[in-house]
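User: My instructor asked us to take a sequence, write out its structure as tokens, and then describe one feature of it. I'm not sure where to start. Here is the sequence I was given:
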Amino acid sequence: MRSVGMLGVALALFLVAVPAGASEDLKGRLDRLQELVEKQQQTIGELETKLSVANSEDLDAARVEEIKKVVREVLADADFRESLYPDVMQVGYDHGFYIKSSDEKFLLNINGMMKFRWTGTNRQTDNPRLQGRNKQDDINGFEIEQLYLTFMGHIHTDKLTYRVTVRGDTDQSHDWITYYAWVNYEIAPELQIRAGLVDIPQGRQFLYWHSQWQFVDRSLAEEVFALGRSIGIKAHGTLAKRLSYQIGMFNGINDESDSPGREQLDTNFSYAARLVGHILGDPITSEPDLEYSKDPQWEVGSSFYYNDDNGDNRGPGLLYNIPERIRRGRGIGGNATADATGTDYFGFGMDTAFKYRGFSLAAEWYLRTVDSDSEFSQWELLTTRSGSSHYQGGYIQAGYFIIPKKVELAARMGGVWDNGGDNTWEYTFGVSYYPYGSHNFKIQADYTRIEEASVDSDWINVNQNDEINMFRVQLQAAFE
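Assistant: Let's start with the prediction itself. The structure tokens for your sequence are:
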């Protein structure tokens, strides 16, 4: 502003000194110069004002961002949040929806899983009364094969946990049934006690949760030898992080929640035990190596069970091969099942699993021995076997992710043999696609060839003694 004033004084003195005739033209020029200077000064003032406002806004924005950062750090402190709202329950999602108390003494997780499946099956059977092999009715249709809802968490302490799982039966009654219902208390990592409706500890594949399978379904051999679930109590734990065990006693084999009351059980408990050595890496909890393990994982397991069935309402169907003299007279296939009442039966099994960088390998072997306690038992009447007899089974399967954590190819071979007649063999080839790299959503397809099916199974869609060619496509959706 001072420079503008000095310029005005200089112009006035200059006008006094210049002659009048010449000054008129010069005066006009100076007036225009004066006007230009004033406009420039006005522009400079406006720019100074805008600059001052911009600096103020930047400073305010920086202050706001700093305050937000402090607030985020404070709210991330769980103790601080709980001090603000000490009596408010917390709700959210973490591998399932959860509700928990602010002091975290009570927790409820809600998980769910559904498998939507298409099955196309070509079936044939051998019948000695007819010439050659006969075609049965084919199967082609959609189904919701498995539908589960799980409630789990802890009470008072994270060492006292519980689980209740219900299954929607889409095949027969269309009712919801209790699949699991147990309470578990951890005395120490080496010793935990679980009581309720639980898995009987036998068989690697059966003990994997259903969303963790490598194929559309489990193997035929597992279907024959699996013990299912029962009401009972078992101890389990891990010793030195390298040796896991389960041991327990139960009402019976396959004594599931929809069985009648205690008055229809015998006086004998069943017993089962399982031991797993974790030779390399962490414990293996699923069949495929979806995690793409950076370090090798290797486990070896064994299991044993025994049951003296003196009248349990429920039990496994004991597989046998129909004697030749009966087969010819009735014109039926080679395999059948007998009620276990009046028999002692025990089983032994061994298994192993390996994973490394997208490759997985698993194998199991089963042995079941049956001994009749009574000449009037269904087993002895149907089989004409008065002494001890046995049969064996197993499978081996492998898979590899050709696109890590996305696409896996797998193959399985297994069967049941040493049954006094026709053996059963299964061959399965499959592909699995994991769009999001997790078991929560995957699409699977497989082809299975079964020669002389040894059981009736709604799970794997086979009938006893059929020759099976089966195609399956399955979509699995879960929040776990």
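For the description part of your assignment, you could build on this observation: The chain has seven helices and 21 strands. Try explaining in your own words what that tells you about the chain.
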